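Trying the structure run again after the queue cleared.
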Amino acid sequence: MAGALLAQAGAWAAEMTPVGTWRSIDDRTGAPKAQIVIRERGGALYGRIEKLLRPGADPHAVCSHCTDDRKDKPMVGLEIIRGARRDGDRAVWEDGKILDPESGRSYTLRLTPVEEGRRLQVRGSVFGIGRTQTWVRVH
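Done. Tokens:
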């Protein structure tokens, strides 16, 4: 029985991380926008757009508004999350950046898994002012 409890605890802990595949949701319509894959590299989190989900989205679109190394790079495969690190023992990842590829603007990032890791609160802000989106785990 103890082994089963440890296995369950391990599965829960694995899900309380932003690492995985997520579906971003449009704030205005509630419809899925994109599928994003978040991975850990060197103790920090990085996330790329895996596919565009909006009806009619151009799969060959580029980040024309970006001003850094992502300028004119394809949206599919574009790294939009960079450098978020876990805040101690808390299930919160901060100090990274998130890119809004539609505007080309980057924001300070905070990622917080909620609902036992089934959803991810993604907060982008500048000088403490920002907004929070909730993404849904795909797998």
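DSSP finds one helix and eight strands in the chain. Worth checking whether this holds up in the mutant runs.
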